[in-house]
Amino acid sequence: MQDEHAVYDIAVIGGGPAGMMAAGRAAELGRSVVLLEKNRQLGVKLLITGKGRCNLTRAEPDHQQLAEGFGKKGRFLLPALRAFGVQEVLEFFAARGVKTKVERGKRVFPASDKAREVREALAAYLRQAGVEVRLNTRVTRLLADGQLITGIDTNRGRVVAGCYILCSGGCSYPGTGSTGEGFSWLRDLGHNVKPLQPALVPVKVEEEWVKEAQGLNLKNVRISVYQQGQRKDQRFGEALITHFGLSGPIVLDLSKKIGELLPQGEVKLHVDVKPSLSFDRLDERVQRDFGKYRNKAFKNSLTDLLPRTLIAPVIRLTGIDPDKQVNSVTREERYRLVSLLKGLEFTVSGLMGFEQAIITRGGVDLKEIDPRTMRSRLFPNLFLAGEILDLDGPTGGYNLQLCWSTGYLAGQSAGEH
Ligand SMILES: Cc1cc2nc3c(=O)[nH]c(=O)nc-3n(C[C@H](O)[C@H](O)[C@H](O)COP(=O)(O)OP(=O)(O)OC[C@H]3O[C@@H](n4cnc5c(N)ncnc54)[C@H](O)[C@@H]3O)c2cc1C
């Protein structure tokens, strides 16, 4: 049992990226800081970011450009980015031994490809700054008296501080600890919380055959979103076939548009498996392969063109007899194959939920937070940072940069409070 009424300058709730950054920064300024985390360890979600590689930011030095990734609301982030932008993040981690590399699409990863390195650098930051980290400590309630937060109730007693920084995250991947409790405390305190929705989510499709190809990573494909025959959006890049449908960076980014379209009717996805080749060029390519394999069965002629697990479903979809000799495939049949590869069609049956969502859309109304300090406009000794805010960016390092910048600024402001 911890000291029931320990008093600190600052109490930070949530040991994710935003909370760790906020706690470290406030302690660096000489404040006594306690960080409360309900899990057995810090940064559980951070460890699974970027498939365990952690896309920690993006190589976008222009604050304006970065903020625009968050849409109109992105302007809110500008002061935080000025306080602690991409350059500062890279320097912060470099100073703690995390070498980084830039990959396609400006995505920045640790050179080691290990998210754990990022987490360990933050843990070292907390140690050096003298933050008291309390693990297995679940906050149950924020106490308020008029316009002041007066304490926090936890499963291990009450914690009292001069200032409080709330970084309890969103509702996505609840198994990592982000169960959205912070939103209910804020509602109880009178803060407005914008409707919460799963965002950057995988897409479910009707086509059962995806099960056969599950786990297949489709690199350099183009996916277009259609409704009533009209193309509504498209992305080029990497996608993943799963047992229920499609995932991977471009699908996650398209999920927002798909979510908007679904209430209006059926949504189709067309996957162009060979977007760098026009229809005619791809047809020439197929003809070359058919020439090479002319005495083989059709089913054995696509090995150069397609990943193994995609061959059987594609063949079925063409309707061509798989055992037919390649040299007897007709031109019409070949065109059917080429058309299919230029637009493999899926019917969307829905989006996955919070369990599989990379982030949460919605959150604390930005109007109620001062962007220059991250301070609540309702409670002068309450600061907020990270995913709990009503901000959500696309994939590619935006969302962690949001945590570093707002976490730093909240820590700085609370530290100077
Ligand atoms: C699978 C996956 C991959 C991702 N990959 C990337 C990526 O590569 N790049 C990127 O930019 N973003 C990525 N994200 C998004 C990114 O992980 C989040 O934006 C980020 O973790 C949010 O940080 P946060 O500190 O605000 O909240 P969280 O990371 O959710 O941390 C909140 C912490 O608060 C704790 N907490 C909650 N309630 C309580 C309570 N009652 N008492 C005490 N503690 C509490 C939780 O246990 C948790 O540790 C990914 C997300 C997922 C799910």
Structure characterization notes:
- This protein has 417 residues and is of the alpha+beta class.
- The chain folds into two domains: 6-198 and 359-416, FAD/NAD(P)-binding domain (3-Layer(bba) Sandwich), CATH 3.50.50.60; 202-352, Helicase, Ruva Protein, domain 3 (Orthogonal Bundle), CATH 1.10.8.
- 32% of the residues lie in helices and 27% in strands.
- It is built from twelve helices and 20 strands.
- The protein has helices at 17-28, 44-48, 63-68, 78-83, 86-95, 115-129, 181-189, 249-261, 279-292, 308-318, 331-342, 398-416, and strands at 6-13, 33-36, 57-58, 100-103, 107-110, 132-134, 139-145, 148-154, 157-166, 193-199, 203-205, 217-227, 230-241, 245-247, 268-272, 344-351, 359-364, 369-370, 375-376, 382-384.
- Strands 1, 2, 6, 7, 8, 9 and 20 form a seven-stranded mixed beta sheet that branches.
- Strand 12 and strand 13 form a beta hairpin.
- Helix 1 (17-28) runs parallel beside helix 12 (398-416), helix 9 (279-292) crosses helix 11 (331-342) and helix 10 (308-318) packs across helix 11.
- The protein starts with 5 loop residues before the first strand and ends with a helix.
- Bound molecules: flavin-adenine dinucleotide.
- Flavin-adenine dinucleotide binds next to helix 1, helix 2 and helix 12.
